[in-house]
Predict the structure.
Amino acid sequence: MKRLSIVFTGILLCLLSSAQQSDTLKLQNCLNLASIKNPAYRQKNISAQILSDKLKNITNNWFPSAGINAQALYNSETIDFSDVFSKMPVPVSVPSLPLDQYKVWADISQQIYDGGVNRTLKQAEKADFNTSIQQTEVDLLAARQQVNQVYFSLLLTQKNSEILGVSLEELKSKRKLVESGVRNGAVLSDNLLAMDAEVYIMQQKLTEVRLMRSNLIRILSVLIDSTINETAIVTQPDQVTPNESGIRPEFGLFESQKEKISVNQKLIGAGDLPKFFAFSQIAYGRPGFNMISNEFHSFYSVGAGMKWNFLNYGDSKRQKKVLELQKELVDVKKDNFNNQLTIQLLTEKMNMEKYDSLIVTDEKILSIRKSVTVSSFSKLNNGIITSTDYLTDMNAEIMARLQFENHKILRMQSACNYALLEGKL
């Protein structure tokens, strides 16, 4: 366990170091940090320690149990044989037992055969531990999915900020040319005012996007429990490389739940078997087993016993039946989850195909919009159209560019979502 903790600590330090030194964010690093630094991750070590202590306690059931007892007693009367022996032909004097009695003794019991209860209890604790671990993995997957959503939202805002920033600079450059045309009398001054208004509008949009990005940075910082620089660059995943050996942790959870139920069925069966044990008692006091002795002395007894509650009126059978029905409930939940997962996978696959098609069309639309904008600006400089007409064409190009870049990012997100849904990322 210590060696495992050292390995994970080393991985964590490497991830933190790479994230802080390069001022760049990578999806895989964020997903790893979301798993390692999530509060749910600490449950694994806690559960492992709990299991270790419980198994030790069950093992101790095989050790002899011993207890020390003491007793002082005063009786109002005691056994008296004087009347019996006084009627005999030859009178016999028999001492009477004392009214006060004292005893200190130790009871020792050793289990010999328990019907397999302790062995099955260990199996039950291990099954409960496996269920806890699988539930933790389910929680960690949910955390990774949340990080994935925030990461791509952050990537979208970053790309939109870049496009709007470049568009704003281009607009300012075009404004200078229009301003020169106004001074030369080739362009009306109203055209310049319309472009000034558009500059402010674009600055507002850029501010909104940057504020949204800043908020997403803070959210991601909380999810991965790390400090992220506001100027950190979010990198685009080049290609999703899913882990082919991965599997959704929910399937492991369902199997561990059924295994836990099966062990509980075995435990019920073990409880119906007879139990054998040995016992002894070592004592000192008076009177002992020799009731007529008035002297303090030591005495002991040893023996063996059996306990078998064979008449349970069908309770065990009904309990096993209830557990079998619980297994069927787990299978129903598994089938329902599998159906929902299939729907989600089909949806993400359809999204990938949709974005592949849209990206091809986006490239054509963007190429046309670029040509229209160039032609429109030339017409503006020649006084053929107004700046409002040009700004309409320019905004259409910006929207086409934003749509093109957004569709590419959404295509990446769908691929990552698909891998996460399969449990392979």
